[in-house]
Design a protein that fits this description.
Elements lengths: L1 H7 L4 H8 L14 E2 L11 E8 L9 E10 L6 E5 L9 H10 L4 H6 L6 E13 L9 E6 L1 H11 L16 E10 L2 E3 L4 E6 L3 E3 L5 E3 L6 H11 L13 H15 L4 H14 L22 H5 L27 H6 L2
Parallel strand pairs: 1-6
Antiparallel strand pairs: 2-5, 2-7, 3-4, 3-5, 5-6, 7-8, 7-9, 10-11
Length: 340
C-alpha cells in the first residue's frame, strides 16, 4: 500500500503515462515560427518552389536587410558546433579571422586544413511575406524573417543596381516585384540559381475586417499599414550582429586550444579579446565593417563591392502610397493568386 501511495502521489494518469513512456525531444522538430526556412528537402520531389515578396523593415526602412559575418565553429572534442558572429562585421579585431590566416599560412598541410574550422560566411536576413507556398499553405500571407546567403543577396542587388535597365526596389510595399524561390539539391547543398524576380507585382497584403487577405492600394490608410507591420513583423534586430559574452569568448578559446593543441591560447589571445571588448570603431553604429579591416584574400571582389548593401538608400522610407490609379494587382489575394 505504501508503494501504491507513492505512485498515486505522482499525479494524474497523464503524468504516469509520461513518466513511463517519455517523449524525449531531440530538438530537430523545433521550428522558429517567426522564420521562413525553406529547403530542398522540405519540397515536393526534393524541389522547393514558392512565391514571396520582400517587405520593408518598419523600424528602420533604410536598413531592411541585416548582414553579418558568421562562423559555424565546431568543437573538435565533442564534434558539436554553434554559430558565432564574427567581430569583423563591425570592424573589431577577430580571433576567428586571426586563427584562419595563421593556420592558412602554416607550412603544415594538416594545419592548413584546420583553418576551415575558423572560416566565415556572409549571412543576411530580411522580412518577407509568403504569397504562395504549396509546401506550407498555412504560411501564406504571413510576415516572416528569411535568412539567406550571398547568392540571394546578389539577386536583390541586381534589382537595386542593375547593369542594364531601370532599378527596382523589391522592398517597395506597393511596387515590389514577386520573387520565385526555387531550391534544388546540388552536390548535397541547397542551390538557389533558379530563383528569380518575376515581372509581376503584388502589393503588401493585410487582412480585412472579415480576416481575408487583401492588397493595399493608393487609398489605404498609411497609419493602418504601419500599425499592421508593427504588430505582425518579427523583430529583425535579433538577426544582426551580437556582441560576444563571456560564454562565447570561452568557447572560442576552447576551440582554438583544441585545434592547435596550445595550452597557452588564453594568454596568447587575451590582448586581442580585451581589445575586441573595448574598441568600438565608427562602423559599429551602422553595423558595417570598414573595408580596410577586411582582407581581400578572405572574400571575393564581388563581396567587397556589395559591402554597403544593407543600406537601401538615404531617401528610402515607408512608401507614401502615391496617388496612382493602377498599383499592383486589383482585388483580394485569392483573386491575384488565381492569375499567377
Amino acid at each position: 500500500m505504501a508503494n501504491e501511495k507513492n505512485v498515486t502521489s505522482l499525479g494524474s494518469s497523464e503524468d504516469l503515462d509520461a513518466l513511463f513512456n517519455p517523449k524525449i525531444s531531440t530538438g530537430e522538430s523545433n521550428q522558429n515560427l517567426n522564420e521562413y526556412s525553406p529547403s530542398a528537402d522540405k519540397g515536393k520531389n526534393k524541389i522547393y518552389d514558392s512565391i514571396i515578396r520582400f517587405v520593408t523593415w518598419w523600424e528602420d526602412p533604410n536598413h531592411s536587410i541585416t548582414e553579418k559575418w558568421v562562423c559555424w565553429l565546431v568543437d573538435p572534442v565533442t564534434q558539436r558546433g554553434r554559430f558565432v558572429d564574427c567581430p569583423s562585421t563591425i570592424g573589431k579585431p577577430s580571433p576567428l579571422q586571426d586563427m584562419y590566416f595563421k593556420l592558412k599560412k602554416n607550412e603544415s598541410v594538416t594545419m592548413q586544413k584546420q583553418a576551415d574550422v575558423f572560416s566565415r560566411r556572409h549571412n543576411f536576413a530580411c522580412v518577407i511575406q509568403v504569397i504562395k507556398d504549396e509546401n506550407n499553405k498555412e504560411l501564406e500571407g504571413k510576415l516572416l524573417v528569411w535568412r539567406f546567403g550571398q547568392k540571394i543577396h546578389e539577386k536583390i542587388m541586381s534589382e537595386l543596381k542593375p547593369v542594364i535597365g531601370d532599378p527596382h526596389n523589391p522592398f517597395d510595399l506597393l511596387n515590389g516585384k514577386l520573387f520565385q524561390l526555387k531550391i534544388i539539391k546540388v552536390a548535397g547543398f541547397n542551390n538557389y540559381d533558379q530563383s528569380k524576380f518575376i515581372d509581376k507585382v503584388i502589393t503588401l497584403c493585410i487582412p480585412n475586417e472579415q480576416g481575408k487577405l487583401v492588397q493595399i492600394n493608393n487609398k489605404t490608410d498609411k497609419k493602418m499599414v504601419l500599425e499592421y507591420l508593427k504588430t505582425n513583423t518579427p523583430d529583425l534586430k535579433k538577426y544582426g550582429y551580437k556582441e560576444w559574452d563571456q560564454e562565447i569568448f570561452d568557447y572560442v578559446n576552447h576551440v582554438i586550444n583544441a585545434v592547435t593543441g596550445q595550452s597557452n591560447v588564453s594568454s596568447n589571445y587575451s590582448s586581442v579579446i580585451n581589445q575586441s571588448k573595448q574598441s568600438t570603431p565608427t562602423g559599429a553604429k551602422t553595423g558595417k565593417a570598414p573595408q580596410s579591416n577586411i582582407s581581400v584574400t578572405d572574400i571575393s571582389l564581388d563581396e567587397l563591392t556589395s559591402g554597403t548593401s544593407s543600406s537601401l538608400g538615404e531617401d528610402f522610407e515607408l512608401p507614401s502610397l502615391p496617388n496612382l490609379d493602377d498599383v499592383g494587382l486589383s482585388g483580394d489575394l485569392d483573386d491575384a493568386l488565381a492569375n499567377l
